Amino acid sequence: MSKHWVLMALAAAMVIPAAAQKPDLSGTWKLNVARSFTAADHPAKDYELTKTIVQTAGSIKQTDHAVHVSMVNMPLPDSTVTMDLAADGQEHEITGASSFPGMPPPQLKVTVEWQGGTLLVSEAGMQFGGRSTTQRRYFLSDDGKQLIELIEGHSGFGDTAQRLVFDKQK
């Protein structure tokens, strides 16, 4: 009987560190519009969003490249936005991306932390329309071939929730 307890304790000791490991989100990820829920956003049929993530021990560099962007059927220029995020659970002030061409970019307070295998990015600041808050949760599919981004946003324009699914590129 004691052998069984020892084996169970050894198995638990091996599983707990594995569960605590952070997944590697690094790679190039392309939005799969058909598998995503974009809420009130209705992207044009030729819209593309590609995320490139470089993850190191305590930081994440994320570059979003969007083409054929439109908002309320108004075409916007293609964009590339890079954010350097410290995944330390501390609040940092960063410059966000401008909502519209010609508008100054907002100053955001951002906190990034790992919650198990999920990366939580919390943003707060003043944007066009007043104060806004956004929470983004990133995690990988079981097979690691998809990056899922859950977005919950609150602003003067209302509340939104999205589920974006990105396919890993070779």
Structural class: mainly beta
Give helix % range.
10-25%
Kindly report how far apart the N and C termini lie: 50 Å
- Overall spatial form: globular
Question: What is the number of domains?
Answer: 1
Main sheet strand line-up: 6-3-2-1-12-11-10-9-8-7
If classified by CATH, what would the architecture be? Answer: Beta Barrel
Taking all residues together, what is the mean pLDDT?
85
Radius of gyration: 19 Å
The counted number of beta strands is 12
| H-E order | HEEEEEEEEEEEE
Strand content: over 45%
> Under the CATH scheme, which class?
Mainly Beta
Q: Would you write up a description of this structure?
A:
- The chain is mainly beta and 170 residues long.
- It has one helix spanning 2-20, and strands spanning 27-31, 48-55, 59-67, 70-71, 74-75, 79-86, 91-95, 107-115, 118-127, 130-140, 146-155, 158-168.
- The protein has one domain (23-168): Calycin beta-barrel core domain (Lipocalin), CATH 2.40.128.20.
- The strands form 2 sheets. It has a 10-stranded antiparallel beta sheet, with no helix packed on it.
- Strand 10 and strand 11 (146-155) form a beta hairpin.
- The radius of gyration is 19 Å and the shape is globular.
- It starts with a helix and ends with a strand.
